[in-house]
Amino acid sequence: MTVNDARIAPNQAPPLQDYDVFGCDDALVEAVDRHGGRAALDGLSTLGRLAGSHRTLHWADQANTYTPVLRTHDRYGNRIDEVEFHPAWHHLMEVAVSHGLAGAAWSGGPAAHVTRAAGFMTWSTAESGHGCPISMTYASVAALRTDPEAAAIWGPGLKSLVYDFGLRPPAAKAGLLCGMAMTEKQGGSDVRANTTTATPLDAEGEYLLTGHKWFCSAPMSDLFLVLAQAPDGLTCFVVPRVLPDGTRNRINLQRLKDKLGNRSNASSEIEFDRTWARRLGTEGRGVATIIEMVSMTRLDCVLGSAAIMRRAVTEAAHHAAHRQAFGSALIDKPLMRNVLSDLAVESQAATALGIRLAAAFDAADPAERAFRRLAVAVGKYWVTKRAIGVAAEALECLGGNGYVEESGMPRLLREAPVNSIWEGSGNVNALDVLRALTREPECAEAFLAEAGAAQGADSRFDAAFARVRDDLTGLAGFADAEFQARRLVERLATVLQGSLLVRYAPTAVADAYCATRLAGEGGHTFGTLPARTDTKTILHRAQPRLG
After folding, report:
1. What are the pLDDT digits (tens) for 244-274?
2. C-alpha angle 503/505/510, rounded to 5°?
3. Measured between alpha carbons, how far is 255 from 4 in angstroms, rounded to an integer?
């Protein structure tokens, strides 16, 4: 090659591939080890190498280039209601299921949910869209556990490590996936406004559903959890795609949604037309039946957003380390170091929080249950919103290169908002935090106990914690509590993340976080860390280690 060879683009970063995504993420490795998952580290590194491989990244590109196609009828005019996926989608799904990211965590074992959370984060850095059916399958087991008979029928398939695609009776398949169909045109997050009706059949627990679902995720799943109005009120149902005798259940796919992001995943609009369903739980207790499932999917929103942050920051740091500008590498420019370090601090805070939330699902004691009841909603609100800003700023670190689809950065930016919207938008989660605080006082006690464990280590944290404690103490007397809900949740989130970083992160990371997120030394954009910040330590944790 000569210097004048026009076929070679100069001053370009090499592709970020063929490295251990998990092993290079110090914050994630430390969190897994801290919460009892040391025995899983080698297996997670195996998955990390798969996630960072050229082959997997090529699958991700293909799955988002050749998006799902709806086939409502076959060549003869028979209604089939099937969605076709590119083979790359199936490859991604097979790895996810075989590594236990769907329902396997419910089979038990030490730190099962922590290990699964770390795996979900690791694998999601490669491609986010296919995480949707994986997440719903994981969460569905929690809902099925409310009904031992239903759990016995479908639980083993949902916990399987086998990806068995295709529409066949669930009993004939080696592995099952579960979707959800809750949202209707007139209701949205107000699921009690649902108008889908459930008519009882003679057989106990069997119904026929009639209605329209505005958003049904992953329509080629084997089962769906559905809310419908039964005679005694809103009720949860299990709806199989194929009935035991091999006939297709009456689920008509009207269209696939043309979405901002998450394009590799098929989301549909469906009609139920006397569709067979089995009741899950008791009539009129639909929301109570699915509430634990909602908590699990919200957890995955946090984890998925943390994965997007990590990928975005890693790509930006990698680019900056190899791109020369004005006589030196971008990463050596003071202002770029500030931006990258600020992004890295946000990413590491999200990771610490996500794995701490997962650990609360591994614990059985009431205090941990109370903690997660509040903290999951807090984390869902905050981390999913921060991911959008992180993805946008990281894209800008690549300049024009980041704005080009081939960089992968636009896909990260498009993916980020879905986690903020799914399972309740920001307002819904903020109001859920208020509901938990006012109706379940033990939640505030558990939250303050966890966050307060860092008291005495940093004066800025102590001051922020005292403000939050005062907020929660006086909450019952605030007439404008709903109006101020977002402000309160933001404070809860930053104090909780600050506590985790003060206790467990390197001093450089904790100091930068406390200064900017708690003490007000930062600005309104990323790249406004104080001059004293130890960017060397922070960026070392943010950069991938190739080879």
Report:
1. 999 999 999 999 999 999 999 999 999 999 9
2. 85
3. 52
| Residue in this structure with the two tokens 């990463």, named with its chain if needed | 331
Write down the residue that tokens 């614990």 correspond to: 363
The angle, 0 to 180 degrees and rounded to 10, between the axes of the packed helices 54-65 and 87-98 is 130
Q: Measure the CA–CA gap between 95 and 488, rounded to whole angstroms.
A: 40
Q: Distance between CA atoms of 385 and 539, rounded to whole angstroms?
A: 23
114 and 157 Cβ atoms separated by less than 8 Å: no
> What CA–CA distance (Å, rounded) separates 177 from 219?
10
Which of 118, 102, 223 is closest to 159 using CA atoms? Answer: 102
Helix axes 131-144, 286-322, angle to 10 degrees: 150
H or E stretch at 224? strand 223-230
Look at residue 1 in the predicted model and tell me its pLDDT. Answer: 46
Closest CA to 508 of 534, 485, 527: 534
User: Which candidate, 410, 418, 405, places its Cα nearest to that of 391?
Assistant: 410
Handedness of CA 432, 434, 439, 444 (dihedral sign): positive
The closest alpha carbon to 544, from 95, 13, 2, 155, belongs to 13
* Long-range contacts formed by 364-370: CB under 8 A, 24+ apart: 366/442, 367/442, 367/446, 367/449, 368/446, 370/440, 370/442, 370/443, 370/445, 370/446
Dihedral over Cα of 114, 383, 335, 12: its sign: positive
pLDDT tens digits, 302-335: 999 999 999 999 999 999 999 999 999 999 999 9
CB 82 within 8 A of CB 167: yes
Distance CA 272, CA 252 (A): 7
Nearest CA-CA partner of 217 in 74, 92, 68: 68
Q: How far apart are CA 132 and CA 142, in angstroms?
A: 16
Report the residue count for the chain: 547
